[in-house]
Structures are given as C-alpha cells and as structure tokens.
Specification:
glycoprotein; metal ion binding; 2 domains; calcium; about 5% helix; disulfide bond; globular; about 130 residues
Length: about 130
C-alpha cells in the first residue's frame, strides 16, 4: 500500500467501522496486515461474513451496491491484496512483509481474482518484492 491519502484508514464490516492507527504519507510502500474475527467485542461482534456478498475496496459504501462519495475514496496505489480464512502466525506475517515467502490468500488472492475497475483506475504490473 502506498499513500493512503487524506482520509483515515478504516476497516468497515456491516456498517461498523474502526479507524486504524496508521499514517502512510511518505511515498514509500508499506505492508499492512489486519486481523478480525466476528466473535467477542469491538468491531462487528458476532457478525459472520456470509458467502455471496460484495467486497468493495477503496470506497466507503453508503448503500448496498451504490451511493459512493468521491471524497471518501482511496487515493494511492495498492498491490498484493490477500485474504485468509484464518489468522496468520507472527512468523508468516513477518515472512510476507520481508518477502521471505509469498503466501496466497485462500479467500481472496490478488493474482487469482478478477477485479472490476471503476472511476479511472488502471491496473499496472508490479512486484512488491523487487
């Protein structure tokens, strides 16, 4: 992830949000790893993410499938997005961040998913480890 822009970085699940304590405005690439489980407390407790939903990346969504606000959109570059159905170990996260290994997500894998680009986005080749 490079240059998130002026908006705070947030994780939103089922209309609930948490602001991540991250600032990335130095023009360099950053590795970001976030874990969440739908049990317990804090963000969307006891909420399961169900199959067949819509995953929106880089834009806060006011209603299902629409009402996007350009002032709430991601500005910057993003690469190698991965989602797993489990929490990675500290060692796995470190190896991923330092390019000692390349794990692919079992839920979403950047290289395998077809992505619909909207709003003037461009897909460019990039290897985050080189």
């Amino acid at each position: 992830l490079i240059e998130w822009g002026g908006n705070p970085m947030e994780l939103l699940i089922s209309d609930e949000a948490v602001t991540l304590p991250v600032t990335m405005t130095d023009g360099k690439w950053h590795h970001v790893c976030v874990t969440w489980k739908g049990s317990g407390q804090n963000l969307a407790p006891w909420h399961a993410i169900k199959a067949g939903g819509v995953f929106i990346l880089g834009q806060e969504q006011d209603t299902m499938g629409g009402r996007f606000d350009v002032t709430q959109s991601f500005t910057g570059q993003l690469s190698d997005l991965q989602f797993w159905s489990r929490v990675l170990t500290t060692n796995e996260i470190h190896k991923q961040a330092t390019c000692a290994s390349h794990l692919t997500g079992d839920v979403v894998s950047w290289a395998e998913e077809s992505v619909e680009l909207h709003g003037g986005l461009a897909e460019l080749p990039f290897d985050p480890c080189h």
